[in-house]
Here is the input.
Amino acid sequence: MGKAYDRVLAARSADKISIQDLVAGITDDFMELHGDRAYSDDPAVYAGIGTIDGQPVTITSIQKGDDTDENIERHFGSAEPSGYRKALRLMKQAEKFNRPIINLINTPGAYPGMDAEYKGQGYMIAQSIMQGLKLKVPYISVIIGEGGSGGALALAVGDTVWALEDSIYSVLSPEGYATILWKDSSKAAEAAEQMQLTPKELLDNEIIDKIIPEVKDAKSMQNFKEALIEKINELNKLPKEELLAQRHERYRKFN
Here is the structure.
């Protein structure tokens, strides 16, 4: 099995830190907020307000479950349109109150059900991207495990995008790539080698800006928290116009 696919398996591992534990570790307090103010509340999106070293922040995330029942409830980390509406609502609220945004991402992709398409899945992903690029507050995105397709990109158009060591970020899964290219999902390991989806390859291609060590204990949690504080302070110093100009330039240079 190739090294790239080893990283795929590590990104999907049940041993990966949960986003709820990560949020609890980096915030001094956190209040979860619910609902998209239009249709429903998607449990795949865990979002709310907290403080990091006294700095109020808005955190939105797409998360998987800790067990089978939770995974079923959260669609195995695949957000529905109401989830993206909730995330965008809170990001717009963050802009209104001048709070930095931190988005934590662990999703194989947006929920692929027919009902989700009827309720505007593609539209909400597009809105999350377009409006996210215009938010006049610091915006940090971190790939925690899987960063799959537009489902991940919807929350990953910030000023900087980081990835944990054991994570992947790609247009689709290796299994999907192998099925499309070779009509054989068993060639997923070969597909992963071609897709350049590992953090090192993503960093070399300037898709991400930083690789973060896996958060496994108190020390690595504190290091991650300090990195966030440092970046927020750096971005807070930029005039709003320059913040947006640099963000737009970051994505314009993608091939």
